[in-house]
Amino acid sequence: MLRWIGGCRWVCVALGLVACGWGNSGAAAADEPPNILFIFADDQCFETIHACGNDEIQTPNLDRLARRGTRFSHCYNMGSWSGAVCVASRTMLNSGRFVWTANEIYHQSDAERQAGRWWSQYMKQAGYRTYMTGKWHCRANAAKSFDVVADVRGGMPRQTPAGYDRPLPDGSDPWSPSDPSFGGFWQGGTHWSEVVGNHAEQFLRDASERDKPFFMYIAFNAPHDPRQSPQKYVDMYPANSLAVPDNFLPLYPYCEPMGAGRSLRDEKLAPFPRTERAVQVHRQEYYAIITHMDAQIGRVLKALEASGKADNTWIFFTADHGLAVGQHGLMGKQNLYDHSVRVPFFVIGPNVPAGQTIEEPIYLQDVMATSLELARVEKPQHVEFNSILPILDGRSGSPYEAMYGAYLNRQRSIRTDRYKLIMYPQAAKVRLYDLQADPHEMHDLADRPESLPLMKDLFTQFQQLQQQVKDPMDLSETFAHLQR
């Protein structure tokens, strides 16, 4: 079943008709292969864009992208074998492998990893000139993977001790999000988001003078902490005017056994227990750096128009994972709630319907297989993610009946279109949410006797997913009461 929101989208596929003028490949009608512009955010939750329903945040350029193209409202990251969730997400993205097979790359030698086929190398093989700037965070040499590379960044800007455990209980704050003296995003003299914008403009000027199609991998470190931006962006969001999330908690009851406790770096950004004031301050800085990044995205889009290449360019925007920033008493992304595994995903391109929203679930890493199909590259055997073009042109629904989630050996989940089952093996604890009735995942239904048959069904589906993704963890003994 395809679920579409917006205007008239498709006619009867059963009669063999394809909507909106799309061909069978879903690509543009032009003979030449399309350009690909991939814009990647870091730590950006799906609900932090004005066009996606957040009335507090200002994101005019991302809103413009949403109006110009199609938005996938239920896009997910599969999880992580590492506390640095970014590493797993980006390795899956660039290798095309599911989480546990992507993890195998980290047991290879440097030569084996570099010899392996990465996304950019397939685009090169298809005749694309490839460009990259910003956050990489994969165990491969970006300079060898792309034709043109500038300012490859690590996982996060350097932060000082003053950036943690703040604001203080008395209301004071030893750290400022707009003070360049703290380094961080200003290390080197220019804010890293602005550096990405500078390089993207330069890449597009270069691409405009060439006949070859281009593939650009434009990866912001924003809005990862330390969340810094010029003061005018911070001033746009007075902390005391920002809403505290409905699912705010002073402390998540299973934070220690789930691996997101007091010792985790991300969780140490704000004091324990959480206060509403601390959450407001962190959300102020989160929104400010997103709006600042949005301004740089506007520069990239303007440069694309000036290049003369826009009409035959596909734009993809997404993020590597979300972030809690105070939801459920958590600050980081090392959890399996939607605020941390669900991300924005926009597609803009020739014949892509404007202003449409698709609820079919996908993984953000599906963008690799999608771009390979656009580049007319046969999907490599090792690529486990899927092209979304059949969903875009109405040929099929999602290839995923349920969405898998994992974090270390501490958390597992399965998400259907209605329910989510979260398991904490170290605590032998299960949580169940009805996502239609409870989208903020506030009311755990697991202890209700009438929920047991449903949980058994979900657990059976989860075990099937484990086999598909080669998850080595056996939960049958820990959760024996869920076994059929």
Automatic annotation (TrEMBL):
Keywords: Calcium, Hydrolase, Metal-binding, Signal. The keyword Ion transport does not apply. PANTHER family: ARYLSULFATASE FAMILY MEMBER (PTHR42693), ARYLSULFATASE G (PTHR42693:SF42). CDD domains: sulfatase_like. Belongs to the sulfatase family. It is an enzyme of class 3 (hydrolase). Transmembrane segments: none annotated. It comes from Roseimaritima ulvae. Residues 1-30 form the signal peptide. Its EC number is 3.1.6.1. This is Arylsulfatase. GO terms for molecular function: arylsulfatase activity; metal ion binding. Residues 34-375 form the Sulfatase N-terminal domain. PROSITE patterns: PROKAR_LIPOPROTEIN. It holds the Pfam family Sulfatase. Its cofactor is Ca(2+).
